[in-house]
Amino acid sequence: MITHQEQVVRRPAGADFSEKEGCFVKLAEGKLQLTSGEDKAKDVFGVLTDPAEADGTCDVALPGYGGIVGVSVTGEVADGDKLALDADGKVKKAGETAVVVAVALEAGSDCLVEARLVEPVDVAPAAIALAASSAVKVKSTK
Predict the structure, then answer these.
(1) What percent of the chain is helix, strand and coil (3-state, nearest 5)?
(2) CA-to-CA distance for 96 and 73, rounded, in angstroms?
(3) Distance between CA 97 and CA 25 in Å, rounded?
(4) Is 139 a member of any domain?
(5) What local confidence, expressed as pLDDT, does residue 3 receive?
(6) In b/e form, how buried is each residue of 102-112, taking b as 16+ CB within 10 angstroms?
(7) Residue 141 lies in a domain
(8) Is 80 exceeded by the pLDDT of residue 4?
(9) Residue bearing the bigger pLDDT, 103 or 7
(10) What is the CATH number for 14?
(11) What is the pLDDT of residue 118?
(12) Contact yes or no for 118/68 (Cβ under 8 A)
């Protein structure tokens, strides 16, 4: 039986990630690639905790990891903000529509911040406005 006591795994880098600590990754053909703002929750493999050069072996904390990790943020985030995928494996403060992957445990701007990983989830707007062409017209009965 194979068991792991930690939620950290090792996988080969698909590019030079030596400066990508805290960036989120996905798997493509068995190698790690950076996520983008267009990826879905199902695409997220984890976050780089010990990055490596191309074809080197990286340590990746899996979603839901029980500890605190550093995540690379773009823009400004506050303690407690939900963090969503952004370009180049980084995260930003989650908006109305996003793939939430972590919660910030400190404030920061364009840097590495401490965060708690969560299971990735696709978040949609709370309300969807009807397009003008699909609006129903109601006729007055007076």
Answers:
(1) 5, 45, 50
(2) 18
(3) 20
(4) no
(5) 55
(6) bbbeeebeeee
(7) no
(8) no
(9) 103
(10) 2.40.300.10
(11) 95
(12) no
Residue type, 85: L
pLDDT tens for residues 110-125? 999 999 999 999 988 6
Give the DSSP H or E segment for 120. Answer: strand 112-123
Q: What is the C-alpha separation between 124 and 122, in angstroms, rounded?
A: 7
The verdict on residue 104 lying in a domain is: yes
Contacts of 135 (CB under 8 A, 6+ apart): none
The total number of structural domains in the chain stands at 1
In one letter, which amino acid is 124? A
Question: pTM for the complete prediction?
Answer: 0.84
Question: Is residue 130 domain-resident?
Answer: no
Give me the residue label for tokens 């068995």: 30
Return the closest-CA partner of residue 90 out of 15, 39, 125: 39
Structural domain including 92 reads 8-123
